[in-house]
Amino acid sequence: PPGRGGGGGxxxxxxxxxxxxxxxxxxxxxxxxxxxxxxxxxxxxxPPVPPRLRRRGYLLAAVAxxxxxxxxxxxxxxxxxxxxxTLNIVFWKFVLVGxxxxxxAASLAPRGSxxxxxxxxxxxxxRRKGVLLPALLATLxxxxxxxxxxxxxxxTAASNxxxxxxxxxxxxxxLGCLFLSDVLPVRTAIAIAVGVxxxxxxxxxxxxxxxxGAAVDTAAPRSLDELLRPERVVRATWYGNLVAIxxxxxxxxxxxxxxxxxxxxxxAPTAGLxxxxxxxxxxxxxxxxxxxxxxxxxxxxxxYPLIIGNGALAGLAWVCCIKACQLVTGAEVGLILLADMPxxxxxxxxxxxxxxxxxxxxxxxxxxxxxxxxxxxxxRAGREAERCxxxxxxxxxxxxxxxxxxxxxxxxxx
Length: 414
Known about the structure:
Blueprint: H1 12-16, H2 22-32, H3 51-68, H4 74-81, H5 86-107, H6 114-121, H7 132-155, H8 158-166, H9 168-179, H10 186-202, H11 204-210, H12 224-228, H13 238-264, H14 272-292, H15 303-324, H16 330-337, H17 343-352, H18 358-413
Helix pairs in contact: 3-15, 3-16, 4-15, 5-6, 5-14, 5-15, 7-13, 7-14, 8-13, 9-13, 9-16, 10-18
């Protein structure tokens, strides 16, 4: 007991156990020394995600990558050939994204329960401590991500926008370490560094060309008409670069809020966190279009299959990202999203006939090779963890009966 035998108030277990094994020491004390003060219940940390579920999270992120990759060519086709403009494309696309997330969230609610549907589509109404703020912030960050993503391609060079958005795994790693105490494995940190470097290499010629003094536009558009003009040449601007950085930062902040919401309300549907921000972006674009006198419904029939397909794929990508960030960290989701680097030029070549540069092909293939090596190392680490967990479980089961006998003996001695 503390204070007896000249031990300085420290028990034998506290002197011999390493400080890094607090949870294991507490579990052993509960079994063998139930009267010890350290055996009092403590709030448990979130359990580690099993390797099998981590692989599912990587798969969902890969599906999101494949769904987002045509996003670079479908709006351009609609704008170039079928009467689309920025406002009606934003309206149709994000209304569909919001509707898909809304219906998916409602489908997860219990059948015949209106309260369950309301809680699924309005996560902020859940009566749980610490849930309201992440839900509201997730909605705001969804709207900010969509707005910055569209605005970045209108206010700076496309190469600058792509690279500055692709560095979002760095923001995910920083936010996870700051707010959730994430510890990235060395293999993941190296893969993120290589992927971001490949993003710069892939668009190096375009970045150098956009950085030329004659190609830099330092003046902001003077009116909405000038900003929305289809034939306007978009050049590299400092404010457009900031908007592109904000798109990646707000996206990772959204994933962080989804993870916080999932930790504070386990089992609750998280798909409703993205629907209202996307619907708000679409409705805002509609209001601006009506006030500006723009056309929301172009007369070309080919416009609607393109934009409906774009909105459906983007909605699927948001759903997959929300599910994936519950199983892996936001930095790892952003790392998998880097795999669209060679896919985007492929779709642009098929749809618009633009031939990608050798830098783009080389950088994209390097990213794929990096992701392949990272996935193989993660699979090996997961298999080793599963074997260790199985051995520890068998050892604990073998000592359980002896622990119960020891506990009974201590109770008789007391």
